[in-house]
Amino acid sequence: MTVAALIVAAGRGTRAAGEAAVPKQYWPLGGVAMLTRSISAFAEHGCVDEILVVVHGDDAKLYQAAAAPYATRLRAPVLGGAMRQDSVRAGLEALSAARPTKVLIHDAARPFVDAALIDRVIFCLATHDAALPSLPVTDTIKRANDGHVTETLKRDGLWRAQTPQGFKFDAILAAHRKAAEAGLTDFTDDSAVAEWFGLDVGLVEGSEANRKLTSAEDLRSADDGLRLRQGGSGTMRVASGYDVHAFASGDAVILCGVRIPHEKKLSGHSDADVALHALTDALLGVIADGDIGAHFPPSDERWRGQASSLFLKEAGSRVKARGGKIVHADITLICEAPRIGPYRDAMRANVADVLGLEISQVSIKATTNEGLGFIGRGEGIAAMATATVLLP
Ligand code: MG
Fold it and tell me: How far is the CA of 270 from the centre of ligand 1 (A)?
């Protein structure tokens, strides 16, 4: 038994053409051509024996560059036809020399297909003529005419078809030949050709990541996402902040914007939120933009009694203005009292809200000072913070 992968990359990508000087399947995503990523999914999969790409005649140079990392794994490329269906048939005819038992037909515009999905498709072919990865339709589907809705369709039983679609090789080759003979050219995928031919098409679970990249916006967001994940075009920076405030008589302290009842308050010019001051300094440190005292001097009456979330928000905006993305904020409070634990999640939620982060990106820890020194004597609270930021 041999499994072949047929990757269709002959399209002109006109929908994305505004952005792309090259057809979209050659567009670099995180520095790697979309087609190279699609090829790699099959080349790195242990069960795929043959790989063939169907290309456009104008793309010889682009193909050569995109295929180079897997040159030894690829059969000679085949030129596509006017319609996608013609391209697939040309690929199948070329593969027939290798006599594969199964073929996976994949659109190059789905570069994020993973090994588990390919496994599911191959496995399904043990019991079906064809295997279709798909996801249920979750949006409500409307039919419209001339900008006016004419009908709301029932979405039960509707599925979004993806690729790779798997087939018993001889069956799908026969189906494509027969469709060509019948002059039928408007099938939008190979499963449709198989259905028309009377093959049994089984459904397997697709994946949201395996989306088709169609628009310039799709390409840009995929590229951004990959660059961020790789940190490839950016620098990860880490900076720390430290602050301490003394206790004064009062009935509550403010930590990370949360009011915590206590027998004392923290004294300071603003609300004396020692935790947010430390984190503000850490964020300013990441972009080497001075410290909290430089931006919000205690001598300035504007900041008297201010909520320190204002300072944190400003530091966050300065990071964002530099193209930075805050990856993680970590705060340690050092005090004998009050107890921080019961307020920890409210504090995390507050910091996340001010900085526009997920709560999982904010960590708050607390420790006592074991009765030692000024903190041990209960004279004040200290805070340390670390900010991790990806800068372009
Ligand atoms: Mg302070």
Answer: 8
Query: Domain 3-230 classified CATH 3.40.47.10?
Result: no
- Does the pLDDT at position 13 exceed 80? no
Whether residue 90 is predicted with pLDDT greater than 70 in this model: the reply is: yes
Q: If you measure from the C-alpha of residue 326 to the centroid of ligand 1, how many angstroms do you get, rounded to a whole number?
A: 22
**Ligand 1 midpoint to CA 332 (Å):** 15
Q: Which of 170, 169, 180, 176 is nearest to 194 (CA)?
A: 176
What's the pTM value of the predicted model, to 2 decimals? 0.61
Whole-Å CA distances, 14 to 61, 214, 222: 19, 9, 18
Cα(55) to ligand 1 centroid in Å equals 63
* CA 168 – ligand 1 centroid, Å: 70
Domain 235-391 has CATH 3.30.1330.50: yes
How many angstroms is it from 287 CA to the middle of ligand 1? 19
How far, in Å, from the CA of 390 to the mean position of ligand 1? 26
Beta-sheet pairing, 235-249 with 252-255 = unpaired
CA of 385 to the centre of ligand 1 (A): 12
For ligand 1, the distance from its centroid to the CA atom of residue 359, given in whole angstroms, is: 24
> So where are the chain's domains?
3-230, 235-391
Return the pLDDT at 300. Answer: 85
What's the token pair of residue 366?
Answer: 């607390």
Q: How far is CA 50 from CA 55, 130, 363, in A?
A: 16, 18, 49
Please give the distance, rounded to the nearest whole angstrom, from the Cα atom of residue 295 to the centre of ligand 1.
12
Of 109, 101, 39, which Cα lies nearest the Cα of 73?
39
Q: Rounded to whole angstroms, how far apart are CA atoms 103 and 170? A: 9
For residue 141, the number of C-alpha atoms closer than 13 Å in the C-beta half-sphere is: 11
Residue 361 Cα to ligand 1 middle (Å)? 23
Q: What is the pLDDT of residues 304-354, one digit of tens each?
A: 888 999 999 999 999 988 878 899 999 999 999 999 999 999 999 999 999
Mean pLDDT of 88-95: 97
Work out the angle at residue 268's Cα, subtended by the Cα atoms of residues 267 and 269, and round it to the nearest 5 degrees.
145
pLDDT at 20 over 80: no
Cα–Cα distance between 168 and 343 in angstroms, integer? 60
